[in-house]
Batch of 3 targets.
Target 1
Amino acid sequence: MWLKPEEVLLKNALKLWMMERSNDYFVLQRRRGYGEEGGGGLTGLLVGTLDSVLDSTAKVAPFRILHQTPDSQVYLSIACGANREEITKHWEWLEENIMKTLSVFDSNEDITNFVQGKIRGLIAEEGKHSFAKEDDPEKFREALLKFEKCFGLPEQEKLVTYYSCSYWKGRVPCQGWLYLSTNFLSFYSFLLGSEIKLIISWDAISKLEKTSNVILTESIHVCSQGENHYFSMFLHINQTYLLMEQLASYAIKRIFDKETFDNDPVLDDPLQITKRGLENRAHSEQFNAFFRLPKEETLKEVHECFLWVPFSHFNTHGKMCISENYICFASRDGNLCSVIIPLREVLAIDETNDSSKSVIISVKGKTAFRFSEVKEFEQLVAKLRLKCGATSTQYHDISTEVPVSSDSVDPSDDTEVQSLTCQRECSKTVNTEALMTVFHPQNLETLDSKMLKEKMKEQSWNILFSECGRGVSMFRTKKTRDLVVRGIPETLRGELWMLFSGAVNDMAANPGYYAEVVEQSLGTCNLATEEIERDLRRSLPEHPAFQSDTGISALRRVLTAYAFRNPKIGYCQAMNILTSVLLLYAKEEEAFWLLVAVCERMLPDYFNRRIIGALVDQAVFEELIRDHLPQLTEHMTDMTFFSSVSLSWFLTLFISVLPIESAVNVVDCFFYDGIKAILQLGLAILDYNLDKLLACKDDAEAVTALNRFFNNVTNKDSPLPSSVQQGSNVSDEKSSHIRVDITDLIRESNEKYGNILYEDIHSMRCRNRLYVIQTLEETTKQNVKELFFSYYWCLSSPVLKHHDPSLPYLEQYQIDCQQFRVLYHLLSPWAYSANRDSLALWTFRLLDENSDCLINFKEFSSAIDIMYNGSFTEKLKLLFKLHISPAYTEVQYKDPSKGDELSKEELLYLSQLHVSKPAKEKEANSAKNSPEKEKEKVNIQAYLSQWQDELLKQEENIKDLPRMNQSQFIQFSKTLYNLFHGDPEEESLYQAIAVVTNLLLRMEEVGRKLHSPTSAMKGLSGAVCVSGVPSEGQAEKPLEKEPTSPREEPQWSFAFEQILASLLNEPALVKFFEKSIDLKAKLENAKTSQLSSRTKK
């Protein structure tokens, strides 16, 4: 088969390969030990043994063809074969079709480029026919049986694919099978009586990369839990690596991004993940990222072809990529030329009758694109016509309103038509102009030198529009990038940001969406809206637009609407700074869609609690620093310095560190080039300050040097008034530091670091994402262990008796009731209550759902979280549940002299008194809490599903809570009295609880009379003191339950809604439960207390 041309190290390869044929340009080699009498000596015997130890499907291809050029040490592998007949066929094809052509080239470089292009074309042609071809079902079934037999994983584990490869155990290669399943990477080898079995969980991998060394030309390096594993001798190493990368990434996402998996029918069910599905998904993700298309787009077809570029008068070679709603083209060199054609813009699709095999696509604005040398172009035209027919019907009402003329069409016109009706409805509340237009209108009568330069920039862009078109379907060329680097004119900035970010497509596909979200989110009150209100006045406070209600209101609407749209992100700091800049140059609705593009596509996982995306890109930045600025890496003792300094660069796109007039130029480049622009600029800044940083003695000095540099970055061509420009606040005379123009800095970053490829950044992101998440996991594990173990017990503590390392780390450490009491006394905000031991006992019983007299950290932290961070309703519900079954049990103290304190024996005894459950329910709970426990294995898939469900468990319905009976209510009232003791508002709280108790008893009495007129409430009027605060010594007497006979009337009871409604009427009670308590201080005090008690011992 033909192979993607890749370099090989011939010097080492000669030990394993023998030459069969050769000419000036190609070499045919046979693997030693194959087809030789006697096996080719000792070397051939060893190689043959390694290649043939398993069945025939495990063999390394014994023949290959290399491309060589005269006077060159570089060899490229271009083909391999399983037998002599197959490889001879490839060799003869090369001699007949390639050899004659190569003699006309003048340089070796042209020869190599031609050969590479031809081979890639052959591979693409083969790939088209094998795109829908299934794997050999018989071979896959056989491999599946081996996989299940060798590893004994849970039945739910789905095998995705398998490869023959070598696993390096030390310096010895072991030939075997690599199995890739949904949750594990597994390897099995049996050679000369020695068995090797390896199982690695995908979510335990911290490093996954392709490497090469002296022995191995290329291998895959896997690092898991500090152990390094190397796999080599793959027939298709790039394909294997891509699948491994995806499976590892999905395993991590399955834990941290459940919402994505819930909304994806394939990812939600790992059993549906297939090799072809993963490959298609990877190609679609790369396609969407490159062309900035919505995430929902799926790459359907790829065609090699030529696109006619009218303004340059030549055909450029590249690929036509087709999805559900877009036709895209990128030249072989992605920077040379690219085009995006939404099907909603297409008017007609035609084919030519000549031999050029051309497809002509006409779009609005009387523009046509000609694609030539398209194979199977007739079928393609038929498919596209069918697609456009469906799309035209969908967008028919919109399309008929868009004028088509010979002039360039402004892309904003299409969007405005789509949302015209909605804008009319909400024009009173939503701004339809960019804030810069309102607060800094250009005065054409008084043109200074800066305004003249601005007009020259506009003219340059108008010339580009006349050549390349205007709007979403314009040609994007090297000239486009050059103009972006110079800075986009103020009047075009909003339009081009929408275009380059892809937000124009989101807005066109969702007409009226923003107005609807604004209306729905209006008046909502939650944590996100509170944080938004807090930060509104901190967003570019020096700009006049955000010193007025117009700008503040627009910012509030956009941020609130986005928090409503995406509650998973909600609102994060730095979003306000970015959005305020977007509102300056884009209309309000456009600013919203730009924010969507940034948060959900261009900077994924940046704006959330863990800021994983920013941490990943910082790791990528550190890797680039090592590659491009090694002297700085050697000087810095700790690379984390770059992470701490650059975090704000990535989160705010340099807006927080650069003057606003300079920062917008960075945003221009970001929307055109994505994160690549930020990484390049970061490297250029460090390079510019290299000498100063090398002279710094510590991190503080380096930070000062960088801050001083940022303060001296200017934009000499900015037309903004001096009152707005931040860089103009310091005059050149007063500053002894050299001024740096932002345009020069960006141009330098492109010249020095523009060779960084999108593919390399994507690969580094994937590789570092695993490392970052594993680091966060290890930190979390350490914190859990420290908080739950090290702070409170010494190493010899019996807590180790309840440690199960096979469980996930949140459940590994468990404690009994006595240990829980210690923690409760140290950490609970209710620990000062007189009956704190009883509360600790009831809380433990409530958390111990599986009745094993042990609770884990996850259960413990859930209760503490409610006590400190819960709402009034949540805290009251917790107290209510503590006083009903199964948590509540009547406590009788054996030693009255100790008051309400329970002995260890009493505590442990009472914790074991559980409400009996049916046998079937016990078995179900046992199976739920310990998946596959009977097999002594943990079913990881079952656990992940269970854990995700628990994390996002819906709020318990208060109507489902059982009623509280008489004795439980009396104890509940006692607990409230105990909680209020010692509080500054003690008297008012006692009075309030007395009023509430009296009200509840009267309500119950009225209810009983309505249902049974002859019944009367006897002896209950004194059940609780209602005349005020009980006097000392009599506080508990009124609450004592009087003995009753079976013939007396049935006990009364209360529902949780009744108690909640009554308590809400007392402001003193609400204030008591809603006051904030510093958990961090409580933890520090607990730690100090335990350390000091440990020292005394």
Target 2
Amino acid sequence: MSSTTDKQPLKPLSPQEWELLISDFQQGQDASWTSRYSILEQVLSSILKRDFPVSLKYSLILFMEEFSLLLFQHSSLDQLMNALRSIVQAPLEPPHYTYTLKEQMMVSATSIFITLVDELDSQLFLPLEGLVELLLVIINRPNHSPDRQTRGIACECLRELERAYPCLLSDIAGQLWCLCQSERTHASQNYNLLFTQIVHNIAIHRVNTSILNTSIPMIPFNVPQWILNLGSNKEVSSLNYKELRRAMAFLLEWPHVFTPHGMMEFMGMIMPMALALDLQPSMLKVQFFGMVHSYDPLLCHAVLRLYLQFVDAFDGQEVEIARRLVSISRETQMHLVFRLLSLHWLLGFFNGLLTSNDVMKKKLILGMALSFYPAVFDPLALKALKLDLLALFSVCLETSQPEGENHLSIRSVFEKGLVSVSAFKWMPPWSTETAVAFRTFHKFLLDGSSHSHVDSSTTRKLMESAIFHSLQDMLVDLTLEFPRLVPVIVAFTNRFLGCQKHRYLGEGLLKTLDEKLLPKTLVDHKLLIYFPLFNRIAESDKIPPGRLLELLQELVVFIVKKHDPDAALRSWSQGSKVLGICRTMMMHHHSSRLFIGLSHLLAFTCLHFPDLEVRDNARIYLRMLVCIPGKKLRELLSLGEKLIGVVPSAQSGPFFNVHSPQQPLDPRKSRNVSAYIHIQRMMPLLVKQSWSLSLSALDFGDGKPDYLLSVKDNEPKPNDRGTEGSSDGQINSESERIPLPQEPLRVMDAKISQLLVTLRKHFACIPDFRYMLGIKVKIPCFLRFMSEPFSRIWGHNASDGNLDEVEALPAIYATVLKFSSSAPYGSITSCHIPFLIGEPSEKNSPIDQKVSTEIVLFDNGSHEDDNSSKALVMIELEPREPTPGMVDVFIETSTENGQIICGQLQSISIGIEDMFLKAIIPSDIPDDGVPTYCSDLFTSLWEAYGSPSNFGHETFPLQGGKGAAVIYGTQSVKLLEVSASSLIQLTEHHLALFVVSVTGDPLVDLLRDGGIIRDVVWKEVESDPSGDSTNLITNLESGPLALKYIDEDDEIKGDLAVDTRRSMGCIHILVFLPPRFHLLLQMEVGDISTLVRIRTDHWPCLAYIDDYLEALYLGR
């Protein structure tokens, strides 16, 4: 760098600052550092520090080399040399000073010097002499084992300096020759390469110097003055010529010391030396030809380079070279790269033989033809290269045999070679094997042709060749047998059509396909797969359009006869593509040539085609064909392709090139979307809940209600308070447990123990939604919209003004429904509907649109018809509390013309009956044991909710092992004045899934004969229900709610009530309320009334259950 007086004084940078500096330099942000610091002085001083991290020293050396043009000037090379001497001459002291550090510093210093100094001048002699002298000191210790690697690196540095500044070391060549003779370690390769480089430069640049002169000492080293005007030297004298040949003979005795990479370097210098010294190439051939039999690709490559340099010296040995290369390609144990290289070399080798016009050498290729056929299990890349060799062989075969004798042989080679890639017929058209097969077609056809000139004789020869005729027949058969290859065949033809010289080959293939393919194709709906090929045939003005027009007319007649009203879109697509080909013919052919056939086709289409748009377009084309002259007609038809800003569609024909910009959202139109876009439940609610019990505003004093404290963690977790603070009060950490008095150990009887076992098994199946996915509740709904108001607002106009036809109905696309709710239902997943057709106006009658505000009659789902104007929407809830609520629905969709619709739809009501789920069955319960398990579970829960004192303060772990449930039961009663037959019928329709057991002979007979309630426990002898409910209004202080069954002033007398509830039997119903609650119903059925005993561990649901029972059984 230049003077740094205006910069800050030298302040050592920390390792972190060095890493930041290197990163900034690599990102081009070096200005902020170079303006404040002298970077070069900082780098050199840090490298020389003994206590500086060794790993960072390597990074700084590489950084200095990478940015040498920014850090160094010619005047700063002395600083670099001083630092280099300090490191190289420092005593070995691992890990601070090692051989590796010295070697890296030598390499980087040499690289920096060569990068900075392009041309030598006298001012740079001093730093250059210092660098060379230091390196010569290092190498001047032959056979010294500890630093042999360092000496080898120093030799490489000197060789790079000799290569950059030719003949720099020519005066001390004799001294270096002596070192080569003395060195016996593996560094001898580096010494020999250095000496070879010096001799090579002397011979090439013809320097008049003696390499046997050892009178000039190596140290101190002086740069030769004549090196500045190297080009003015005279030719080599006879004495020097002899010395160079003697040095050459010495070097040829040491190939065994070279590694394959060293041999490549050595051969690159030896061959120019042999030419410069007029040596016999046979000397090199005898010395190095044996390397062709090695198993190293570098050595084989070196022999091939020698062959290309001295072709005449290897006359007669081409067979041995070719057979060796073929042998390498067929040895499966070889690396694939080596095998591929051998085939590449063989291709170049044979191309050289073909250009020599030597008949004997061409016969060499013909004699090895059987070796070129790919094996079945060869890799695909190897097959491709072997097929290239077969293509080259076919060219040689065609030019070496007399005319008329080679057609069968060439076709046989072509067909046998394709056997190895014949699987392309059954593979996808984009497969690599298909690409290789069609590449081979192209190679066989054009390998003997050139693109440089146009020769009519070559044109006729290719058109009449056996390969071309065989390829034509093969393409016809492939197109008929494997239609999925049509796009590949079209691309193959386009490759010829895109070449000015070989365009005639593509036209010949299209003509053959027109003559041989079109008469054989079957006219059906699958014919459309050939349309890309038909389009290319229609573009060629050298192919008569008659056959294609006849085929298209047959296709249109087939479409008209086989038209299906449900396939209107397919008919439109097929008709549009037919018209697209007709348009292509009108653009590329004279009107007089296709007038008769095309007019018949267009006339039939505009009269009989089932699609209206196709008929109209055919009528327009027919009028243009009749009324507009040919030249003007082509100008009009090509006008659409010249419009600026309209990108042509990938589909054929002009009917897909419609430029429709996206229209922005109009908030005024989206204001009342709920008036014509409706979402409704599939099954209406029995009770349309107009209220919901919320306890968030109630004051419970210091404590909390029991049902909110029913789940708690098994073990204290210090972070639980903040983790689940938003779970609606149902989950509490260990620190929020209710203070319970210490109780002595209790002794339980066998019955209570069995009940606890059942409860633990049941609660272990209930997931703890705090730590895992909760239980889902699905609400099926329908989305529909009315066509008439939708079209009026969003501008859809039917063609005939009648919205009852399916084709004229509007549609919406890419609909997204988003849901939200203030009720504790968790996150609700959005719903996506790709396509929805509008509902005809006749279905928008107001009948059945109005329902009762509170109660609706039972609906068995008969309204769910198979109609495309309704889309099924499944709302999935994950309740945190079994409570009714409302789900708000928001819609985002788009119309056919790209307009965006956004708005809010009607809200969906969620009732308590939506929360009714069957109890979770453990996986170890067999199917035939499920009824018994459910009955036992009902009994266990009934006892737990009715007599909590028997269970103490038992906790029941939930699934996941982190949370546990505590039972707080509540009970109530409900008298239903309804007949037994009505109650049984309604129970079978609505609650059959939740019935777990039935007791009493009359009731069992009625329900069992009905056949709806199945897989339950039937108890024909009814047990006395009074034993479970004699003390109904007890423990008032333990629960927040207590109801009396019979008041003193009640009109129903006690004896009547007892008689009515004992007359027929009991129905036991078990309902699971997510996330972990239960509802138990014991219906004591009488002839004229039924007493329902209710027990639950979620007392807020009692109010909803009361309304539900009245709506279900009393119709209120």
Target 3
Amino acid sequence: MVGSGSAFTLAGYLEELTAQEFKKFKLAVAEGGPPGSPRARIPRGRVEKADPADLAGLLVTYHGAGGAWRVALRAWQEMGLRRLWELARKEAPPPDAVEAPSGDTSQSGNKASARTGEPGHAEKYRAQVRKKFQVLEERNARLGEWVDLSQHYTRLLLVRGHASPWRREQELLASGGLHGLLREEHRRPIELQTLFDADAEEAGSPPTTVVLQGVAGIGKTTLARKVLLDWAAGTLYPGRFDYVFYVNCRTVEVVAPLSVAELLSGWLEDTGPGSGPAPVPALLARPERLLFILDGFDELLWGPQAQEAGPRVPGEQRQQVDVHLRSLLGKRLLPEASLLITTRPTALEKLQPLLERPWLAEVLGFRASERRAYFDKYFPAPGQADRAWAAVQANKVLFTMCFVPLVCWVLCTGLRQQMERGEAPAQSARTTTAVYVAFLSSLVRPDRHGPPRIPAAGLRGLCSLAATGQRERRLWFRERDLARHGLDAATVSTFLQMDQFQHEAECRATYSFFHSTFQEFFAALFLVMERPRWPFRRPGWGLLLKGPSGLQADLPLTIRFLFGLSSRERADALETMVGEPVPRGSQRVLLRWIREQAAQGPGRAKTLELLYCLFETQEPEFVRRAMGCFREVKVRVRTRMDGLVATFCLRASRSTLAVELDGLGSGAAGLGFQEPGLADQETGTYSLKDICQDLSSGLWVQRSLSELGLGEDALGDSGMRWLCEDLQRPRCPLQSLRLLNCWLTSDFAESLSCALNVSHTLTSLDLSYNPLEDQGAALLFRALEHPRCRLQKLCLKKCHLTEKSCENLGPVLGVSRTLQWLDLGFNVLGDRGVGLLCGGLRQATCQLQTLRLGNCGLTCQCCLDLASVLSLGARLLCLFLRNNALGDSGVQQLCQGLRAPRCRLRELSLANCRLTHACCASISSVLSASNSIESLFLSGNDLEDVGIQELARGLRHPNCKVQELKVQMCGLTRLGCETLALVLSSCPSLRQLDLSNNCVGEEGTKLLGRGLLQPGCRLQSLKLFWAALSEADKAELAAVARAKPGLEISYLSDNKELWLPSTSRIKMARSALGRGALEPRPVDWGPLRRWTRPASTARLWRSLTHRSRPLSRGGGRTCGRPGFFHSLTFAEVFSADFTSSFQ
């Protein structure tokens, strides 16, 4: 059997090739055999679909062992793989050692015949085995449909050793790529070729009994058939076994009385029908050359006489088949023969006492790389496998469960049927629930024409077990748990996995579902079948709706399954499967729950989870009613599946919505999708452009979209031009459009300019973090001059603008009739650019009311221009100049305009402008003017106690109208608190005060408390975050909050924001919620966590709290694509995203 051994060695060399080299090698070997060989050429189709092991077998089959090596060596030499050619040439068999190829069994048959004494029977037997096991009939096959096992088989992962409880738990909870890594990590992978070889790490002889355990649907039967087929082809166990018997334990008639000779004859006829009379005496004379494959030991029905091991039975004596099987397993019958047994883990306890020194391996299903290989073999047409695989990758849950071959088959079958109907896989209705129901049906009723193998009572017990595990946060179950829920052996072996973990001096059998997602699925099925009136509020049921690890999202998979099982189609499928009615009407309960969730204003992550729940139903009418509960939809779309879910739900809506979709670019790039618009139908790509098209076909016509936000996606100029065409439609209802970091350049500006001139509804436009540059901005500003332009709000933060843009924008400000709000922050405009803007602001026709110029590189040189604008009575009401180096001199110049009688400014932000106490006297004079401002933000400046004392003079003046004062991080101590305590009682207009990041201390807290309790104090909100408060200080503030009606005090307690509501609010809350107290609300760390890592956050915070260090020099991340944008500093995040209080 040299040829077969050569095939195994040759396969090892082929696995060393890269994907590109292996492709070239296939082209070379498909041309024909070695020179002068009369053998047939391998069909090109079989070569293209073969993996390294299959291709090695094909080469040996068609060209013989020596010819296969000559073909390979010639191909490697032509490809220039000199090193591989030299190594392989040393292992190539010599010409005189090469036997006939495995396809020509004359020589091997003659050798086997010589041993068995029946000339020609061995080759006939192998031929009949190949004929019977070459084809594989799928579960849903119609008459005449079958697949070639050699071409369809995908290699499975086999490992040795037992996993620890901790490792198994991690595997059960993991998902996506992490799940595949954990399954393969710290395991000993093995190959089929080495199953009966001695273990190099363990001293001892080669095993004669090998047990392959694996859960239902993991591919054990297919693996056993592949072993038999490869042996018959001569590529597996060459020269070791003359005969291999395949015994299907499910079909064995255990009570039939037979002799050993009759039993072997029957098994030979079943395995290789039509091969002729079996040479049983010769086989019994050489038992070491026999292999018995017992497939499905867990399904073997033992007779009453075979329960106890008896003495060795003579071969000629008739006994029941199960007695012979027990003797065969215990090595009392044919002890030298080899056994390969496949079983589910739940039968290991019954199998273990029957065997003598078994060798155990576990079948784990597909490796991560082999999952894609399965799709390639299932879809023969070009491009179909790519589209199907992309659709599965987009669904994290289904991608995780693809390690189970049966799940892969269910997915591929459904996707193939959709392709045959002309549907795109990326837009398939094959939801997660649908796949799990189909998988369940395949296990419960494997024969679609036969009765269910699992009774309805067993299924109910399984669902009850899962629900108990969810409520008690358990993944593992003991045998007493199974008995408590009335589970029979068939149900347990089909759906549960058994592990034996060592506990002190004994081994304990524990049971678990295949994966935690299956436990959540059966828990949801329990809710549907039990039909609780309101499961979300029943005592103890809240934990059932949470993941077993406690680390799941706000809405675990159980709720998603609950929505999917509520659909009519899923209910019909369940009824067909179990043969009993399934309760209906749960959608009313789910709709009420959706309404409650929407009323709470869920965040982006939870909103997306809610949309996923609605998507599982695939019922547009139900989704329409559910979407009517939302007023705005803000989600982060990171994958193509997220986009598909969002558009499905949004298109079903008939209500007016504000929609924000962020994160598309990062998700698409992470999956390696190609650019939008390039053969999307061919590759299954689903990009932001596709989402916009779906929205256009639905929401535009329904006039239900009022606000649209798209962020972090490579929309590109082509996509933007398409979007602009929709903006020009007469029926387009869009009022607000936000496109952040969408890679938009100046090339798109002309299309957008035309849209602004035509749109009758668009009033707000945000294009921040796009490289528009001055050229693109000029085209936008030209649209503002058009009389039909309705734009009122324009945001162009960090768009790479310079003073050139200010030169173009200045005249436009005096012409535009609608523009009232303008943000040019994070652009290097400089003092000259602001001077050019002021030229337009001075125009009497200028309508601008809010101007934001944060982080624009300004100094004191621009303050005179701004002061002149304010003194002329411009309509400007809000001016934001934070994070600019204005200095004391600049603010003193600015105050000249603020004191002017015609100044209308009401809100001024000078945060982090490098100010000291020297400018506070000027600011105080502004506060005492008759047209005093109402909101003043001075955070991040070195004002210290002296500066606060100067400000207090203006705050205590009767003309002062300040309602909000922020002096965070200004170096205040007890003296500053003493001054502010006097201000609280003498400034009746003051409503909000922020003293965060100041060393208030115990004395300062007491002084503030006394001021707050004064009758003249009207303060409603006091913030003391990061103020180094002791427990006594917190108790003091709590007492003040209780005693002062209408006052709210906020500070940090153990890294959480503590909110002390006023007495009146507590009374209102008690009456509304019917409970005794309010729980502290945690601070929302989302924006900070989104931009920085925890370690860098601490370092940045230390730098921020150092008063001598300018805030704008903080570290940060790069926004957009690498090498494109300037660094987004922590100051930008802190001032723009982290909290609105730092202004």
